[in-house]
């Protein structure tokens, strides 16, 4: 199986609280996982796209947006795009939920 199509488990869905970011360590990288109130799950590298950086997992989730408490940036979790007037993009990670388990794409776990 190609590495891009492989997924690895990072925890049971019930371990991810609704609207609260959670960091998982996988492949030496920190991944921020967000479970939305509508049941969807999104993941991103736990690195704020702001030039000064910072963790993403500490943001506040509302709908499908992540509100960054450090820089007051609004990030669309479906695309990773920072909303105007700010610009940038969070590095989103492919994630899926199967049989009550959250899975992260293997390609995202490669150290950079």
Automatic annotation (TrEMBL):
<dbReference type="GO" id="GO:0008942">
    <property type="term" value="F:nitrite reductase [NAD(P)H] activity"/>
</dbReference>
<keyword id="KW-0408">Iron</keyword>
<dbReference type="GO" id="GO:0004497">
    <property type="term" value="F:monooxygenase activity"/>
</dbReference>
<dbReference type="InterPro" id="IPR017941">
    <property type="entry name" value="Rieske_2Fe-2S"/>
</dbReference>
<keyword id="KW-0411">Iron-sulfur</keyword>
<dbReference type="GO" id="GO:0051537">
    <property type="term" value="F:2 iron, 2 sulfur cluster binding"/>
</dbReference>
<feature type="domain" description="Rieske">
    <location>
        <begin position="8"/>
        <end position="104"/>
    </location>
</feature>
<dbReference type="InterPro" id="IPR012748">
    <property type="entry name" value="Rieske-like_NirD"/>
</dbReference>
<dbReference type="InterPro" id="IPR036922">
    <property type="entry name" value="Rieske_2Fe-2S_sf"/>
</dbReference>
<dbReference type="GO" id="GO:0016705">
    <property type="term" value="F:oxidoreductase activity, acting on paired donors, with incorporation or reduction of molecular oxygen"/>
</dbReference>
<protein>
    <submittedName>
        <fullName>Nitrite reductase small subunit NirD</fullName>
    </submittedName>
</protein>
<keyword id="KW-0479">Metal-binding</keyword>
<dbReference type="Pfam" id="PF13806">
    <property type="entry name" value="Rieske_2"/>
</dbReference>
<dbReference type="GO" id="GO:0042128">
    <property type="term" value="P:nitrate assimilation"/>
</dbReference>
<dbReference type="GO" id="GO:0046872">
    <property type="term" value="F:metal ion binding"/>
</dbReference>
<keyword id="KW-0560">Oxidoreductase</keyword>
<keyword id="KW-0001">2Fe-2S</keyword>
<keyword id="KW-0534">Nitrate assimilation</keyword>
